[in-house]
Every structure is written in structure tokens, then in C-alpha cells.
Amino acid sequence: MERKTSVKSVKDRGTTVGERRVVTPRSDLFVVKVGDRHVKATVSPRERASDLVARVAKIMTKPGTDRARIFRSNSGKRVYAYFVQPDDPTKVVREDVSGRQTIGRLVGGRYRANRSD
Fold this sequence. Notes:
alpha+beta, 4-stranded antiparallel β-sheet, about 25% strand, about 120 residues
């Protein structure tokens, strides 16, 4: 006489809402996660920008901070520091890692260097 065994699924066993089955590559192995799913906190871009400015200010106030640390980029893009020219507030100065300063202005939210005459 052939004996049949049946395996009930996790849902059939009366699991709670906080339990969920995780798919595995083997059919005889399963993992059940217990608890609520982790909810990632959403942070607005404005809040992220102010956090970045606070971190840069903290780094810059320490004596002996290297310029390369301030202008470092993980994405490979160039990083610039922008500030308003003290004697003419209509002009914006862009400074790169080497210390070279370029005078320009903001047009439509983008920096445009002035033509040298």
C-alpha cells in the first residue's frame, strides 16, 4: 500500500499577517519571516540638501581639512563650491578642487560662466 503525505502551505497552517514565506531555490526548504515589513522612511530632497550642507559645514570647520575631502564625488562627476561675489551680488563664483575660481551667473537654475573679454 502506497502512503501519500501532504504538505500544507504556510497559509494553510494559520499564519498571522506578520508572517510571510520567502522563496528559496530548493522545494524542500522554506523560510518564514516573522514581523512587519521594514518601512523605509521617505525624506524630501530639501531635507537631504540641508543635511548635506550641515555635514559639509561640520567638515570645513575642523582645522586641517583637506580640499580633496570636500570636493570628493562618488559618482565621478566634478564637484564645485558656489558663492556670491561679495562686491557684486549679481555674480556667482564657482570654485573647483584646485582652487580656480570662475565668475558667472545663474540662468534658469544652471550656472553660466561669463565670457572673458
